[in-house]
Amino acid sequence: MKTTDSGSGDVRLTGISKTYGSFTAVHPLDLTVPQGSFFALLGASGCGKTTTLRMIAGLEEPSSGTVHLGDHDVTALPPYKRPVNTVFQSYALFPHLDIFENVAFGLRRRGIKSVKKQVEDMLELVQLGEQARKKPHQLSGGQQQRVAVARALINHPKVLLLDEPLGALDLKLRRQMQLELKRIQTEVGITFVHVTHDQEEAMTMADTVAVMNGGRVEQLGSPADLYENPHTTFVANFLGTSNLIEAEVDSKAGDDIVLKAGDGKLVLPVARCSAPTANGGRVLVGVRPEKISLTHAADAGEIPEGRNRITGKIADSSFIGVSTQYVIDSSVCPEFEVYVQNVDRDTRLVPGADVVLHWSPAHTFGLDAAQD
Ligand code: ATP
């Protein structure tokens, strides 16, 4: 059920900002959300993501900049004149109306008389066809949220804005609804802009994620990009766990940088380093825990050539079902623990064991050690 013409639902923010007195909630921001994409604004509480969403909706007046929807500059338009609709965390359904009438409301308000087919189609889309005559209190939280989505989509907005829509649901329901919202977005084909503080939620649902921090977009990319190649320590740590080892640029070798870390060396592709790469520069060398393999020091001869390797001693291990998580005191970062998630269930190493940690340079990223 495609609900809009293609090419008209991209969102373009140009130099958009918001200040409250002397406080800047959103610093001047340029952002393009392509038509038909599922876009997430991700960040901790207070980073400015809701304010950004509200400026797209017209619920908040920008202090500077413009908002374009498709080719139209909508900056000066009130919310109801913009081809957007918003779903909030609180479903705000009309308790005295049944589900059918809740969804029909927007059509009736526009004076449309024959609403039956449209509402039934919309209820089918959100898989609530059987519930049409129930009242909101007779539905689960997830079902109520789907009614809210149906109600927001019934007037065929070009962009649907979602402000922490799953925040009130328990974890299991939230996971189901993440997939459900993704399915609905794919089916209707319109642009979704989704605000969340939950990195897993953003990564599950969105094609593109903008990670916000302190009123700025810190990095923009696909979930895989952000996870595999973060550009800042904030992004590296906000999207999962990351080991960060301080190292010094020693030399270049083709497309790689060679770094000194303690008495060892690490290799990092230039393309995966967001830090200055002049010799002597300090770089935080990052690697995700699940990319690291562990080998007992006595078997180190079996490790293939060309892998980054550091030595260490198992400090702690915890079995967490799918894998074992190790904390390792490493020779290259003595003040630091290195986390390894070992998926090989046959290799359990006990605390005190001397080990070699090794991983592919292709799974290594470099961050500027001088950044905040
Ligand atoms: P949350 O997830 O908690 O909603 P957020 O990332 O969506 O956080 P915003 O709601 O956009 O954050 O708020 C960004 C900053 O702007 C916060 O520090 C907030 O306190 C401030 N702020 C928001 N609205 C106002 C206002 N009307 N007056 C003053 N400050 C405000």
Automatic annotation (TrEMBL):
Residues 11-239 form the ABC transporter domain. Coiled coil: none annotated. InterPro entries: AAA+_ATPase, ABC_SmlMolc_Importer, ABC_transporter-like_ATP-bd, ABC_transporter-like_CS, Mo/tungstate-bd_C_term_dom, P-loop_NTPase, PotA-like, PotA_ATP-bd. PROSITE patterns: ABC_TRANSPORTER_1 (PS00211), ABC_TRANSPORTER_2 (PS50893). It is an enzyme of class 7 (translocase). Its EC number is 7.6.2.11. NCBIfam families: potA. Belongs to the ABC transporter superfamily. Spermidine/putrescine importer (TC 3.A.1.11.1) family. Part of the ABC transporter complex PotABCD involved in spermidine/putrescine import. Responsible for energy coupling to the transport system. This is Spermidine/putrescine import ATP-binding protein PotA.
